[in-house]
Amino acid sequence: MSQDEIKTKLRIRSSEDLSLQMDGLLALAKVLNKQLDQWYLSGGTLLGAHRDGDFIPWDWDVEVTVLTEEAQPKKGVLLKGLLQAGFAISSNDPSHNNFKIVASGWGTEYEILGRYLKDDGKVRARPMTEVPARFFETHEVVRFRGQSFPAPSPVGDFLHALYGDWRTPLKTI
After folding, report:
1. How far apart are alpha carbons 129 and 145 in whole angstroms?
2. FRET pair for 164, CA 20 to 30 Å: which of 43, 120, 158, 171?
3. Closest-CA residue to 159 (of 134, 135, 123)
């Protein structure tokens, strides 16, 4: 990664940038709500919403989790819906182990990340991370910027499974 890329990723987003990012998240939520029964805020997006009540200003993307077995067969309609909503598709991986759609718009990248259920039925996985499947059996509602979004439940336990000490803010790239 070049020094310019590092500086871009570490920059603090302005309030205008974050407002645009929310506009994009709302557009993404409309697409996901229309096509999927289950999706969840995740990663740094969920961390900021739950811990800080807002986006993390130095986080450069928005992440949502979908259940691979639901999203994978609907990949075509998801892609079509994203394009119709004004997103550009940066990349997509339809594979079972790494289902991922990256859509760009509103000055941000939006990552739709699939988690597949492992054979034991107790774990949902992505490359490099595994969490108990129980987090996706129900959802909690997380509110930020005046909007409600679904999140794995219980949120604090899910964040602990991902990050360990999620309460201490860290600036990372």
Report:
1. 29
2. 120
3. 135
pLDDT digits (tens, 9 = 90+) for 33-62: 999 999 999 999 999 999 989 998 888 899
Strand, helix or coil for residue 17: helix
How far is the C-alpha of 62 from the C-alpha of 79, rounded, in Å?
A: 17
Neighbour tally for 153: CB within 10 Å: 17
Distance CA 112, CA 131 (A): 17
- Within 13 A of 80's CA, how many CA atoms are on the CB side? 6
Q: Which two tokens stand for residue 4?
A: 């310019």
Is the C-alpha dihedral spanning 168, 125, 111, 67 positive or negative? negative
SS3 category, 172: coil
| DSSP assignment letter at 1 | -
